[in-house]
Amino acid sequence: MNEARKDDTILDVKNLQTVFFTNSGLFRAVDDVSFNVRRGETLAIVGESGCGKSVTALSVMRLVPDPPGRVVGGSVTLEGTDLLSLDEAEMRKIRGNRMSMIFQEPMTSLNPVMRIGDQITEVLRLHQEMTSREAWAKAVEMLRLVRIPEPDRRAQEYPHQLSGGMRQRAMIAMALACRPALLIADEPTTALDVTTQANILELIRELQDETGMAVMFITHDLGVVAEIADEVAVMYLGRVVERGSAERIFIDPQHPYTLALLRSIPKLGGRRERGRRLDAIAGMVPHPLNRPPGCPFHTRCPEAVDGLCNRVDPEMRELSPGHFGACHLRGPAGQAG
Q1: Phi/psi of residue 300, nearest 5 degrees
Q2: pTM
Q3: Are 203 and 147 in contact (CB under 8 A)?
Q4: Are 156 and 191 in contact (CB under 8 A)?
């Protein structure tokens, strides 16, 4: 892992708050979230569906639909620029240029009536001083870079003519066309088969090594996290409940929610694993409009202490150097929570 240096920070998110105004009340989708991503490193944001991972990414990109959503607090800084202070015209110069996003389902993200090559060309001509001929040649080069066979022919085709894996590669080609400093990948391998998933992850790693870009990878698959992440942020009900290096999170998880996620991973092994029931996290994620008092996880936590966890909201504390957690029962090394 790269040495943590302040000047290496590409993205710095502090106390981010995003809400949705609904007829039923105020929905806090992202609630006081902080993290940073450094040059050449990958931050994985993990958690169950509905925990706020994708809304966090959309908030960073300034793509939360308004109305009903709005970023109401905190700061998002990309290479020293406060994104929340920019107007929409200034943000358009940054999106697809200094930071790009790969969406979960490329079939709904790609324009169905535009050729693949034209969609990549559009990004290049918007952000780079290129002629149509130069942009088309660059688009074909990007398709070749992401290992799409016969890139000249594929550039002439429409999204529906490509397989799921090739559409995802085309999305990556578009996202990387302007060599962004930050790539946000929102579950980019969820709908792909295992072989294609492995190829996509390898491709992202190779391009990251080549360009030094920072990657913010959103997923619920801890197997993927173990393979690609340098840092991990675990989210629950709109909050980061544990954050640290991938090695620390997997070897010494502290928050009960992180422990529960790790225990729920299917294991392959010998006789001891045969016939063993898969561990599951009890209960359901509370409805965001009916957020429980105290620790948001206490309704499902086997360690919850009545009178404490169900009343007092835990603060994020440094448990060991670079390892943070929000749990009343956990404290710094050698100290009880």
Answers
A1: -120, 0
A2: 0.89
A3: yes
A4: no
